[in-house]
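Q: I'm writing up a methods section and want to include an example of the input and output format. Could you take the sequence below and give the corresponding predicted structure tokens, formatted cleanly so I can copy it straight into the document?
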Amino acid sequence: MWKKGLLVLIVGIGVCLGFQVLGEKKSNQPLKVIVIFHEDVGKFLLETFKEKADQPYDIIRMSSGEASYNLLTLGKTGIDVVLGGPADLHEQLKNKSKSLRYSSASAGSIPSKYKDAKGYWTGMYMGALAIGVNQTVWQQDPQLAALPLPQQYEDLLRPELKGKIEIPDPETSGTGYTLLASVAQQRGDRAAIDLMQALKKQSASMTFAGNTSAQHLAEGGLAAAVSFLSDQLRFKNSGYNISSFIPPQAGWEIGAISILKGGNNPAAAKQLVDFMLSKETQTDYMNTAFSFPLVPNILVNPLLAPVKLENLLAAYRFDLAAQQHEKLLNQWREALE
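A: Here is the clean output for your methods example:
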């Protein structure tokens, strides 16, 4: 009798393990990836992954705010991976039970402060907010040519810059929300809302995504803009006459990757995380992303060599930015009324 019971137990365990293994089998369906950073960089990375892993993919380009709205507000499902975007977005996904735990072996060398302790997200790169200046526009503007270049956010409020600057919208842009949340953590909510409102009134427009502000700056439509430094350096590398300044107590991001619940291809999603955190991929990515690597012993892009990070708000907390997301945005909306 006991032998029969043992046989049933073994079969039962085998069935359970079979379901687990089957659940981890790579699907024939494309891996669906939301990419928060530049689409061309995302395609390059995913094409390389496709060649290495024989895994087709669908790329969905969104800003951080779009991703938050689609995944959290609308409850969109069927997405496998969120690639890039500030860690506070990934914290929101974790807090709302939208993401899966996965601690890649490749993440072992990444310092603990740049990844979730339980494995819900892992940092891939670090970037800082910066004030970008189009030197050509600045020097050719008779109202600006004699003025010192802006070194802090308040410098952008000079009357001579009215209509000549741009900031990203904190509701739709992770860059804009990082600006709002970091100032709030440093100065308090009311001061942050007041500063953002003043910058909005000073701006020619508010952009949907942070990299759009950098693009407008490069194209000569603006004298100055706030965006992540990496977006400004991307255009500087292409020959545009842009100078960048990290303001005192500037906010910063950890660009992260996380796997979502409800995806159709969890096995391939884990492979993509491993791929993105590998030293080879990180080296290739840092040559095009103009961000600071988190994986040790990877050389930074030469354009980042002179950048000093002492001005960053060292105490900036991504978990707090995630927790206060709705509160800060509600205060922002109320101030617009």
